[in-house]
Amino acid sequence: MKETLQNWQGTAVVMGVDWGDSGKGRLIDDLSGRADIVARFNGGSNTGHTIENEKGKFALHIMPSGIFNPEAVNLVGRNVALDLESLVAEMDVLDAARVSYENLVIDKEASLTMTWHKMRDGLREKLRGDKKVGTTGKGVGPTYADRVERVGLLARDLLDPQFEEKLKSEVEIQNQLYDLDLDHVQIAKAYKKIIDRVKKYIGNTTQIVQGAQKDSKNILFEGAQGYFLDIDAGTYPFVTSSNPGVSGVSRSFDITRDNINHVIGITKAYTTRVGEGPMPTKIEGKDADYIIKKGREVGTTTGRVRSPGWLDLVLIREAATANGLTSLAITKVDVLSGLKKISLCVEYTLDGKDTVYIPHDAEHLSRVKPVFKIFDGWDEEISDVRSFNSLPKNAQIYLLAIEEITGVPIHFISVGPYRGQVIYK
Length: 425
Ligand code: IMP
Known about the structure:
By secondary structure, the protein is of the alpha/beta class. It is built from twelve helices and 18 strands. The protein has helices spanning 24-31, 84-96, 115-128, 140-148, 163-178, 184-198, 205-214, 246-253, 286-294, 313-323, 362-367, 393-406; strands at 11-16, 37-40, 49-53, 56-60, 73-76, 104-107, 202-203, 219-226, 262-268, 271-273, 307-309, 311-312, 327-331, 341-350, 353-355, 369-376, 410-414, 422-424. Strands 7-6-5-2-8-1-9-13-17-18 form a ten-stranded mixed beta sheet, sandwiched between helices. Strands 12, 14, 15 and 16 form a four-stranded mixed beta sheet that branches. A two-stranded antiparallel ribbon has the order 3-4. β5, α2 (84-96) and β6 (104-107) form a beta-alpha-beta unit. The chain binds inosinic acid. Inosinic acid binds at residues 19-21, 46-47, 133-136, 138, 140-141, 224-225, 229, 238, 240-241, 274-275.
């Protein structure tokens, strides 16, 4: 039998090849039926993975998207910025929908995102004025900053009888450093409830993953955001503070690219960006309005409207090379139905000469000019289509061009928001 993503096995990574918001939650929900383990490796409550299935519609921020498969163990890796207030709120929603999360393990080495990280995030953005990054305000940057500074609280501290002492000392330091007025007694009181709720889920996730690889289990790594928000390879400083690509898997789970069978790069059939930072293929005017409305392009976490752009194949080629992509997953192809013309960015020029993407250099990306290839659109609604050959001819031509220009085969095409509205190619 031909191996498709529908019968995938081994170790797989789902990572965004854009600026996030590609529909990862939905793909993972589809793929997790075969997973023994679903493991979240980066980011924090800045991400919002939307899943619609027979249990309802869910926006997950910390909880891995494999939670709907009762057979899968769901891991939160050590390099996730662990916002426990968010996790507990997600648990409440899952409780109400009668979805069990008994198979959850949170790595004991993960750094906690605390109130002061969220306050610092907001304060820094305010002081930046018109040079702001446009963060989600979820305290993710300051959580990672403290981790790199080797300070702050870890998940394992929650199990320590000295937790209140540690919290007090950390609050005193934060108050002094940032001129805050936080009360450690109040925070400890709120955390007592959180600890009672989460302590049984804290464990060692790297050992679980290594054991599962030895036993040839199916492991699905769930990335958050997209490669061009990577702290090292993205459009710095308009990036997030973690690694959304395969290097993020190593940072959480000590698994390298050599031990991964499938690296699935996911993007919408167009692109979007939320927050500040350059996007060479930005669409203005009525096509932009059409995509925002039809694609419901409003942030899951912050409610901000996302700016749409045409798909940028220069960026996808870069992500493919740097991460060793084996598949592309293209989502929301149905949103493009009804557009007269659809553009694909195939090259960049700068001052009349060909140029490439330069990692970490937002200034360069803000100056490049996209070279577009223009395609005829299609009118048919395609949400009920289940095979590639039944798609409108122009949709097929568009998708085949993406494969040809990036050199990466498309193995998953979503044509609607619900489970099953998918073409496996
Ligand atoms: P932070 O991750 O909240 O610090 O935000 C840094 C940048 O990453 C901002 O431009 C955010 O809009 C963007 N960002 C962070 N998380 C996501 C996400 O899940 N989807 C899309 N953009 C995100």
